[in-house]
Design brief:
77% of the residues lie in helices and 0% in strands. It is mainly α. Helix 4 runs parallel beside helix 7, helix 4 packs antiparallel against helix 8 and helix 8 packs antiparallel against helix 9.
Length: 218
Amino acid sequence: MEIAPKATSGKMYWRFIGITFFIFLLIFALAEAMGLHFMDSTEQMRTWTLPVAALIGVALLAADIFLPVPSSVIMVANGSLFGLVGGSLLSIVGGLGAALIGYWMGQKGKGLLKRWFRPQDFEVGDRFFARWGISSVIVSRPVPLIAETISVAAGAGNLGWKKMLWGSLLGTVPTAVAYAWAGAYLESYNAGIYAFLAVVGVAGIFVTLGYLLQRNKR
């Protein structure tokens, strides 16, 4: 008679999530303490030629996975310099770069995690991404630190790279378009706030639709 394996509570998995979040927070805090400020990057972008500004803008957005880059400010600057369409495209490329780099980090860290955790410790994570994988990626993209944490966790979990790509794209496009629109057509400081609220609203709509679709399938 076989004994069914004892269900895991998922405490180890949530500890892994918490540690990942704390590591990103620590990296950002150390960068700030070392004087690595990026708020002035947008002013410098205006002094460069457009091709150079485009490359730097994309690189900064992709580096947001490691450094405290003000991605919303960079996206607004892209809209101001390159217009709604051009700014949106550049911000989408940079945002996808950050998401996929985090996913790659999670996949590369799987081997190390297997030494520290038992396979059953990640069952709760597998169930989470099986149910909320794409939705969690979509809704996390506009939120600093949470976006990086979800990207790494998705790579370490059972979320396929195609789902990660689609989730990142769906979460990044509204963000990029909203901030590019703010940069292209609005000059006030509140423009970024309004754009952020619009992004959060769109992300909420995607999550609600995903929940309704999954409930209908069940």
